[in-house]
Design goal:
The strands form four sheets. Strands 1-3-2-4-5 form a five-stranded parallel sheet, sandwiched between helices. With 486 residues, the protein is of the alpha/beta class. 51% of the residues lie in helices and 11% in strands. Helix 2 runs antiparallel to helix 5 and helix 3 packs antiparallel against helix 4. The protein has three domains: 119 residues, Rossmann fold, CATH 3.40.50.20; 131 residues, no CATH class; 163 residues, no CATH class. The two termini are 35 Å apart.
Length: 486
């Protein structure tokens, strides 16, 4: 979208990106959104009750069980917990604010977890867990139905235009581009950039309001200030927005705040704000929690994957080579370790690679840029299948059990790749490499190495237990979709 000068904005009718006149564009409806999202949660709890009731009736019939005098379904408990749960969700902004998908999922899961915990505690105090089991199962099913119903509600609201929040971007530099890309990365938030305006031209207007005309012409719901460089210009634009009381938000310059785990301290009668960072991976308790999850989950996954191990071992033995391949990779603190994989290459792979790179300059350039090859001449037939499905990395569960790796973290690198990280290699050395990670679920080999480094740094600076859970949940569809795998 081209950056429009303020005078043009004041003289012309604003158009959306699709060319629709601003006057014809539907406006967002906060009331419709709130009612619809609350209704989605209500439908979700009703569906959960129906499913549990039907299953309970079926089991009672199949086992010739007599219904309990209390009706088994503690609907009173369900109603009370639902009111408390939705009240808390409303307090956290679920029905009134735009919350990113993974943050919203975390909110729903954590809220229902505490609801279930409360029911378990009450059952233990009453010494009657059995009668409360249906309520526990209902709230166990609720997040699944709630997430699906929520997505359908947002989709319906988007179709009517009620969910779309129109944004006019004030900025013309790197901050504006980064902000627009961030908004586009999560369509579920409903943000639509309908215009981008040069901040200097806005402030050059001398007669009357400077920012309200933009809101009115674009029929925008709010302005997004994404300003670079000139601190005085930034102060003027923000001051103008405050004086005119336009709805606005601010996007800081890219990488000005490379972590989001900040705690703000505000000072009475002062504009100064002190931001204190909470670095998750530096805390001993956080490290202990991550290690516990890694070891316990890896042990279970190894047990479940044992049939796959047997099949791959048999197939890999057919060409007479070893089953596993141990490649030296850099781990925590820069110490190298043998990173295990199922062998996917011919036995004399280094020679084959050297010959192929020497014979094909394009292949050599691709190898130099990414240390990966889309059509690697060293890969065996079985190896192609293993790589496409990522089954070749299953033996790294053993590395996780040996505490050389984590389930989630930066993907392990070889020593020659450390130069691509520059000073940011300190972030990589600050944690154990992972069996999967942000790079794995963000296109993998389809992304540049610079982007890979950025993702690793972001992960280390912003680690939480929920971030690991989110990456693990995103890994399965990424692997099944074979996104960027080669």
């Amino acid at each position: 979208m081209t950056v429009l000068k303020s005078q043009q904005v004041l003289e012309e009718l604003a158009l959306t990106q699709s060319g629709v006149l601003a006057s014809d564009r539907p406006r967002s409806s906060p009331i419709s959104c709130t009612v619809s999202l609350f209704a989605a949660d209500s439908i979700a709890i009703i569906l959960s009750v129906i499913v549990v009731a039907c299953c309970g009736a079926f089991l009672s019939s199949a086992l010739a069980m007599q219904a309990q005098p209390n009706g088994v379904w503690a609907l009173r408990d369900v109603l009370i917990l639902y009111v408390v749960t939705t009240g808390y969700l409303a307090f956290k902004g679920r029905y009134s604010e735009r919350i990113p998908f993974w943050t919203e999922m975390k909110l729903i899961l954590s809220t229902t977890f505490w609801a279930i915990s409360a029911e378990v505690v009450l059952g233990a105090l009453d010494r009657d867990i059995i009668s409360r089991a249906p309520t526990i199962v209902i709230f166990g099913l609720f997040p699944v139905f709630a997430i699906v119903a929520n997505s359908l509600a947002k989709s319906a609201l988007t179709q009517t235009g009620a969910w779309t929040l129109s944004i006019v971007l004030i900025g013309d530099g790197a901050s504006a581009l980064a902000a627009e890309a961030a908004l586009a990365s999560d369509p579920g938030l409903g943000y639509e950039v309908v215009g981008r305006v040069d901040p200097a031209s806005v402030m050059a207007v001398t007669n009357g309001p400077k920012l309200w005309p933009l809101v009115e012409r674009y029929r925008a719901d709010r302005l997004l200030l994404a300003l670079d460089g000139d601190k005085e210009l930034q102060r003027q634009v923000i001051g103008c927005a405050l004086r005119e009381r336009v709805p606005f938000a601010i996007a800081p310059e890219p990488h000005a705040f490379p972590a989001f785990a900040w705690e703000a301290t505000r000072f009475f009668s002062h504009d100064a704000v002190m931001l204190s960072v909470r670095h998750g991976l530096s805390r001993r308790l956080s490290q202990a929690v991550k290690a516990t999850i890694d070891v316990s989950a890896a042990a279970v996954m190894l047990l479940l994957a044992s049939p796959v191990f047997l099949v791959v071992i048999l197939l890999n033995k057919l060409d007479g080579g070893p089953v596993f391949f141990a490649h030296r990779r850099l781990g925590a603190g820069g110490k190298s370790f043998p990173c295990l994989k199922f062998r996917t290459m011919v036995v004399d792979g280094e020679r084959v690679l050297a010959e192929a790179v020497a014979a094909d300059p394009a292949l050599a350039a691709e190898w130099e840029a990414t240390r990966k090859l889309r059509n690697d001449p060293r890969v065996t037939r079985i190896g192609k299948f293993l790589r496409k499905t990522s089954l070749d990395e299953l033996p790294q569960l053993i590395n996780v059990l040996l505490r050389q790796m984590s389930l989630v973290g930066p993907r392990p690198i070889v020593e020659s790749e450390a130069r691509f990280y520059g000073d940011d290699i300190a972030h990589y050395y600050g944690t154990r490499p992972g069996l999967t990670g942000l790079w794995q679920v963000s296109g993998r080999s389809n992304t540049s190495y610079a982007r890979r480094v950025q993702l690793d740094v972001w992960y280390v600076n912003n680690w939480t237990v929920w971030l690991d859970i989110a990456v693990l949940l995103k890994t399965l569809p990424a692997v099944l979709g074979r996104s960027g795998a080669h």
